[in-house]
Amino acid sequence: MLMHIDRYRSYSELAQHEVEGIDFRRAVFRRAFSAVAVIAPHGGKIESRTSEIARAIAGEDFNLYLFEGIKKRGNYAALHVTSRRFDEPSCLELLSTCSFVIAIHGCVGRDERVLLGGLDHSLKDKVTAEIREIGIDVQNDGHHFLATDLSNICNRGQSCKGVQLELTKALRRSANAQRVAEAVRAALLPLQDTHKLSSVSNYFRNGGRM
Ligand SMILES: [Zn+2]
User: Which of 83, 102, 105, 192 is the most exposed, having the fewest neighbouring CB atoms within 10 Å of its CB?
Assistant: First the structure.
């Protein structure tokens, strides 16, 4: 995977050669009052099960974005646009309205592990603590997926910092993937409440106008 060179350098390049609805699909699910975006930019058959894990984290509470490979084969080779170049417009539009971003990816690995990256160190620490709590191996430094580049899609929300989770193949295939999703939700739900309260108080401050 480290030797892989992406076929396309941007979404627009990809969209010139691949057909929406046949090769790939995109979906945005917005949740009222949510300041959190859960995204799977390599979903569907690009990085297997990352869409399902992102859906499980988002539930009915958080905004969700999926970019999914739906080809019969060769999804990763054709449709993987690396996170630093991932610029699909509906994803960027969603992120422009969100303070917190969680990007879900899949990496190789025979042991069940989560590798955490991104520039939102405070949220990274909370996610780390919740995943450790359920006894899953989590590493938030000293690995290949630190996602510290500002152009990484996880860092392109309103606050210019986000969190990236890389789940090993073994973990994505295991029932523990659901437990990790629940642990990530536990880290995100308090943010949601804080934001909801401030949205509601702004609503009243504005005389009922949002
Ligand atoms: Zn990925």
Answer: 192
